Amino acid sequence: EIYTLSLHDALPISISPREQFRFMGVPEEYIDRLLKSGNNNDELYKQAGNSIVVDVLYHLFASLFNINTNI
Q: How far apart are CA 35 and CA 57, in angstroms?
């Protein structure tokens, strides 16, 4: 099963588990490991959906600890 995104007045598009992990900011080497883990696509979609965007988490912690985030 592939989940679809639809935008107002646009054709729906399907995204793969790899693309979903990319949207979440997961590094490619971790995505490769996840895809080789033997989990089916439904489990991979759940894992991506139950995560937080890596860059957002970084900036949240950086602001908590007053770290300069001008990268």
A: 23
DSSP codes, 14-67: EE-HHHHHHHTT--HHHHHHHHTS---HHHHHHHHHTS--HHHHHHHHHHHTT-
Q: How far apart are the first and last CA of the chain?
A: 37
21/62 Cα distance (integer angstroms): 22
Write the CB contacts of 46 (distance below 8 Å, at least 6 apart in sequence). Answer: none
Q: What integer pLDDT is reported at residue 62 of this predicted model?
A: 86
Q: What pLDDT digit, counting tens, does each position of 18-69 carry?
A: 999 998 889 999 999 999 999 999 999 999 888 888 888 888 888 888 766 5
Which three-class secondary structure state does DSSP give residue 13? strand
